[in-house]
Design goal:
Layout lengths: L11 H9 L32 E10 L2 E9 L14 E4 L3 E4 L5 E5 L5 E7 L5 E8 L11 E5 L2 E6 L4 E6 L4 E7 L8 E6 L3 E3 L2 E10 L8 E7 L4 E7 L5 E6 L5 E5 L1 H9 L8 E5 L12 E2 H4 L5 E6 L4 E7 L12 H6 L3 E7 L5 E3 L5 E2 L4 E5 L2 E7 L5 E6 L5 E6 L1 E8 L1
Antiparallel strand pairs: 1-2, 1-30, 2-3, 4-5, 5-6, 6-7, 8-9, 9-10, 10-11, 12-14, 13-14, 14-15, 15-16, 17-18, 18-19, 19-20, 21-22, 22-23, 23-24, 23-25, 26-27, 27-28, 28-29
Length: 413
């Protein structure tokens, strides 16, 4: 991928690439099935009828371009070994989605508006199934797909700002939901942020850049009712580029501007005020006008953004420490996001107490997480995208490590 190195301009695809390489949701490129299926010995006769474990995609940057690897593992513990020779290899950067009782995973890409189903047999073999074409165009990054249940899934079409509903079991299209009204005024391009599920609702942040390719200061979230397929829209002009979301045990939804926006605040503080965190209270569908957290104040003045769940009322944020890198490395907001100069901070949403977590070390600005049953994991990807380690979000102890950067985790079945 080629990224504009102009100090004030950037490719939107590069922005999404940087935001999502640890976000476990999206990516760039296409898929082409290889014939090296994943196998392991059959479980005992009284074992489950479907594979029980986890599937994920990792992407490696190779001389010939990006290569995706579709894996399955029995757990996400640190002692699990990930072997690329046992993965399904495909050219390009695929994104993976699925789970929620389907016993399958679903692959999408940025090269075509198609979604392909892969069933996972009881011995862990991926079996390619049907492909559906949702029509229209594709964005610069692989589309998100959210599988709500065995009979309902959603394709997030960034280019046309719509949700296409389909049956993930029968692999047939159903309907579409027009979201064009959420496009901020003056937006050149829009993208879906990291969604969160709250009971039968899906909260979907939407971000945009303007004609000068700057983040637009307008917080927008779509609340999708998964039972009725209706949407409500909430927006707030106090905060810009709200990309990340977290749902607490109490049902409150917290929305935070991304570390990419915080990098803009670092370069151009006169144009981009500090990143903030907003809240949609439990039982509500609008942003609370009385709640506002200045994220820079949380870290003592460092450019801070992103959000990921921690133990109890704690969430994690990323803050850029310019003293941790060479001045010559700080060139553009995009490349600053990729520097290993970001520190992990914890923030208690009840007491508003915060602290840096030195034991996590320095990493790039991306902050992503995966939820597996009752466990949550933070991702830490090398700045050259060569490898990723997951950490238990409650204890910050190391979990599974693997080559490349992730583009989706699914708990099966």
């Amino acid at each position: 991928m080629r990224c504009n190195t102009d100090r004030r301009r950037h490719s939107f695809a590069c922005v999404l690439y940087a935001l999502l390489f640890m976000g476990l949701v999206s990516g760039c490129g296409g898929t082409e099935q290889a014939d090296n299926g994943v196998t392991e010995p059959d479980p005992p006769p009284d074992g489950p009828d479907v594979y029980e474990g986890f599937a994920f995609i990792s992407i490696l940057n190779q001389p010939q371009g990006q290569v995706s690897y579709l894996h399955r593992v029995p757990s996400l513990d640190a002692d699990v070994t990930v072997d690329l020779t046992e993965a399904i290899e495909s050219s390009g950067g695929a994104a993976m989605h699925g789970g929620n009782g389907t016993g399958a995973v679903f692959l999408s890409s940025a090269e075509s508006p198609r979604v392909t189903r892969y069933d996972v047999t009881r011995d862990g073999t991926f079996v390619q199934g049907a492909t559906i074409d949702v029509g229209g165009t594709v964005g610069e990054a692989a589309a998100n797909v959210y599988v709500a249940s065995p009979d309902t899934a959603y394709y997030f079409d960034e280019a046309l700002l719509r949700l296409v509903t389909f049956d993930p079991t029968e692999m047939v299209l159903r309907d579409e939901i027009d979201l064009s009204s959420v496009r901020p005024e003056g937006a050149l391009q829009t993208a879906f942020g990291n969604p969160s599920r709250r009971d039968n609702e899906l909260i979907i942040p939407i971000v945009a850049i303007d004609g000068d390719r700057f983040p637009i200061i307008d917080a927008v979230a779509v609340i999708l009712d998964l039972e009725t397929n209706t949407v409500s829209i909430t927006r707030d002009g106090r905060c810009g580029y709200v990309f990340d979301s977290v749902v607490t045990d109490s049902g409150d939804v917290y929305l935070a501007a991304s570390p990419y926006y915080s990098a803009h605040n670092f370069f151009f503080p006169e144009d981009f005020p500090p990143a903030c965190m907003l809240r949609i209270p439990a039982g509500e569908r609008t942003i609370d006008p009385d709640y506002f957290i200045d994220l820079n104040a949380v870290s003592g003045g460092l450019p801070t953004g992103g959000i990921a769940p921690g133990p109890g009322p704690t969430v994690y944020l990323k803050a850029f420490d310019e003293s941790a890198v060479l001045p010559s490395q700080i060139v553009t907001p995009f490349f600053t996001l990729a520097l290993s100069g970001w520190r992990l901070w914890s923030f208690d949403i009840e007491t508003e107490a915060s602290e840096s977590i030195p034991s996590f070390g320095l990493s790039s600005g991306g902050i992503g997480y995966a939820i597996a049953g009752d466990r949550r994991f933070l991702g830490s990807t090398a700045t050259d995208f060569s490898g990723t380690t997951l950490f238990d979000a409650d204890t910050l102890e190391e979990a599974i490590s693997f080559p490349g950067f992730p583009n989706g985790f699914v708990e099966l079945p």
